Amino acid sequence: MPKFENHRPVRHSAEDMFALVADIEKYPEFLPLCDGLSVRSRKERDGKTLLVADMTVGYKAIRETFTTQVLLNPAELTIDVKYIEGPFKYLDNRWQFSPTPEGCVVDFFIDYEFKSRILGAVMGSMFDRAFRMFAEAFEARAYNIYA
Q1: What phi and psi values does residue 101 have, to the nearest 5 degrees?
Q2: How big is the CA angle at 79 (ends 108 and 65), to the nearest 5 degrees?
Q3: Res 38: pLDDT
Q4: What's the mean pLDDT in 120-128?
Q5: Is residue 18 a contact partner of residue 97, using CB atoms and an 8 Å limit?
Q6: pLDDT higher for 33 or 55?
Q7: How far apart are CA 102 and CA 56, in angstroms?
Q8: Quick one: which of 79, 81, 83, 123 is 20 to 30 A from 52 by CA?
Q9: What DSSP string runs through 25-72?
């Protein structure tokens, strides 16, 4: 049951960082291991957006696609991701963006487990490295867009 948490101060506003992470269709352009992302549906209600999206991740010859439900809540500066289907037993992911005088703090949390022990053994260490690189990838993307 791998878990990863990152608490990272950045020099960009919470609103800018929220917008950057919420723009999931751009992930294949800069996010490690993300080979593709498509949004199946998008519904807006009460200032929140609910997406259902397919993400394809890959490393060398291995490719896996999984489906998640993504709740974008700009009023609370949070993004909650819930697993629907794919190679995981479960996957929970949460982003929180907290304003600071210098910019904001980005809190990233993910907890997941693969259905298959073999797939977990093959992809687990790669996913662990990728999640550690995610914060840097988003920060670099913010620097390129907002600097």
Answers
A1: -60, -30
A2: 85
A3: 96
A4: 72
A5: yes
A6: 55
A7: 35
A8: 123
A9: GGGGGTSTTEEEEEEEEEEEETTEEEEEEEEEEEETTEEEEEEEEEEE
CATH class of 3-146: alpha beta
| Pair of tokens at residue 84 | 């629907």
What average pLDDT score do residues 122-129 get? 71
Measured between alpha carbons, how far is 146 from 44 in angstroms, rounded to an integer?
A: 26
Mean pLDDT, the chain, integer: 91
Separation CA 125–CA 79 (nearest Å): 25
Confidence of residue 1 (pLDDT cuts 50, 70, 90): low
Q: Rounded distance, CA 88 to CA 8, Å?
A: 27
> Residue ranges of the domains in the chain?
3-146
CB of 133 closer than 8 Å to CB of 4: no
In angstroms, the Cα distances linking 144 to 17, 86, 103 are 12, 32, 16
- Token pair 């751009």 is found at 26
45 versus 122: the higher-pLDDT residue is 45
